Amino acid sequence: MTNPVTVAVLRGEAVESRHRGAISIVDAAGKTVFSLGDVEKPIFPRSAIKALQALPLVESGIADRFGLTAQEISLACSSHSGEPIHVETALSMLKKAGKDADCLECGAHWPVSGKAERELAASGEKPSALHNNCSGKHSGFICLSCGLDEDPKGYIGANHRVQREIRAAGEEMTGFTYLDAFAGIDGCSIPTYAVPLKALALGFARFGTGYGLDKKRAEAAQRIREAVAQYPLLVAGTGRFDTDVMNLFGARLFMKTGAEGVYCATMPEQGLGIAVKCDDGEGRAAQVILGAIVQHFLPMSETEHDSFAKLAEPVLRNWNGIEVGRLRSVLDFTKTS
């Protein structure tokens, strides 16, 4: 099945490029609200499901046992920019579990934030695993491991109890049994499993509403959503789409980007779960698709609409700052495949 064009890239008023993709929007009972493209094909959600991966940490009571703050819970769901606040918060999480950065098994890379990267380089220091965009998630994994009285060493392995707990939570939330035939290794070295978009959308509808979840899990999901809504800077970073949009809408919208053109989101008040995948892996296209979905399904004031339009409809500029084009959604929500 060839997925339809979802985003057009304009140079001037002419279409220069096109992005294809698939979209699934469902309610918490699994009823399709909007569907486009192949939503049954398993895709790797990557970092878009970090909030689901944080559920065992919160619902087990381990987050409370270690006194994790709302900022730290938000960071546990993050693909952060490596700014000082992100590094300091990850280290704080590790210290509460009696560990340090040497326990992190996510690998090191320079901060995603250009400013943070330049400042780190100017200081003469090299990046550590704390600067890895996944260090918050991994710090949460280490807290979970210690709280379960498990040695965190090797926590990235598929057979470690931490990864078994996370896999079970993901399967229960999405209603899809993860298959080893559709397994891979994520950028931060943990296992990643391909899941159909429709199942991912269902998982996020449940995450947003608590529908079909037991009391502990529903409360954990709500707590995670509230933490991210309260501290959106921790889940992404300065000037990042996720941070800016959730700062605008608060708890009315939870969204999380993933590598290779994936986005997952939930609108709790509307009871909707959303999953998006761009065929070419372009994050810029996934952002525009999600923006179009939010504009259509999330009620907003005129002021909110104006502010959001600037985020959802990116302008393209050249090196002189001259506007040369823009990205535009070509979605028609009156039609569904």
Describe the structure.
The chain is of the alpha+beta class and 337 residues long. Helices cover 41% and strands 19% of the residues. The protein has 14 helices and 12 strands. The strands form 3 sheets. Strands 1, 2, 3, 8, 9, 10, 11 and 12 form an 8-stranded antiparallel sheet that branches. Strand 5 and strand 6 form a beta hairpin. The radius of gyration is 19 Å and the shape is globular. The termini are close together.
Short description:
This protein has 337 residues and is an alpha+beta fold.
CATH topology: Beta-lactamase
Give the overall shape, derived from the CA principal axes.
globular
Number of strands: 12
What is the first-to-last residue Cα distance? 12 Å
Mean pLDDT across every amino acid position: 96
Please give the oligomerization state of what you see. Answer: single chain
Number of helices: 14
Helix content: 40-55%
According to CATH, what is the class? Alpha Beta
Unreliable runs, pLDDT <50, ≥5 residues? none
| Helix-strand category | alpha+beta
Strand content: 15-25%
Number of domains: 1
Order of helices and strands: EEEEHHHHHHHHEEEHHHHEEEHHEE
> What is the correct CATH architecture?
3-Layer(aba) Sandwich
Characterize the main sheet: 8 strands, antiparallel
Rg for CA atoms: 19 Å
Highlighted features:
single chain; 337 residues; alpha+beta; Beta-lactamase; eight-stranded antiparallel beta sheet; two-stranded antiparallel ribbon; 14 helices; globular
Per-chain topology:
Layout: E1 5-11, E2 14-27, E3 32-36, E4 42-43, H1 50-53, H2 55-59, H3 62-65, H4 70-76, H5 84-96, H6 114-122, H7 135-147, H8 161-174, E5 183-185, E6 191-193, E7 195-196, H9 197-209, H10 215-230, H11 232-235, H12 241-249, E8 254-258, E9 262-267, E10 272-278, H13 283-297, H14 302-312, E11 315-317, E12 323-329
Antiparallel strand pairs: 1-2, 1-12, 2-3, 2-10, 4-7, 5-6, 8-9, 9-10, 11-12
Helix pairs in contact: 4-5, 4-7, 4-10, 5-7, 8-9, 9-10, 12-14, 13-14
